[in-house]
Amino acid sequence: MDITLLALYTKLLIIEVLPLFSYLSCCVFCTEHESIKHLFFDCVVARNIWADIASMFNIVVVDFESLARHWINHKTMAVFNLVSAAALLGL
User: Can you tell me whether residue 26 is helix, strand or coil?
Assistant: First the structure.
């Protein structure tokens, strides 16, 4: 398995398990209920990051499906794929 995918999968598992222990139930940036979708795409910080990436590469990133679709359809855009993977891991 690719190390990037393994790191992302591990981060997703941690995010899913944390609410079970009541460590984090709200986003530290905007105090909304924290979920995977919120953390990666709906939070104000995530939206700003995706807006910057979208403007750099002239694309639209709405959710993980649109991002994954772009990865699959544009495999030759290695820089975008690397930047978007880094953004996911950084969030």
Answer: strand
Residue 26, strand partner residues: 33
Q: Output the pTM of the full model.
A: 0.65
CB 40 within 8 A of CB 46: yes
d(CA 67, CA 73): 10
pLDDT tens for residues 45-89?
A: 889 998 998 898 888 888 888 888 887 887 777 888 788 878 877
DSSP for residue 76? T
Give 17-41 pLDDT, tens digit per residue.
655 555 557 777 888 877 778 888 8
CA 17 to each of CA 7, 34, 72: distance values in angstroms, whole numbers, following the listed order: 15, 12, 29
Beta carbons within 10 angstroms of residue 16's beta carbon: 11
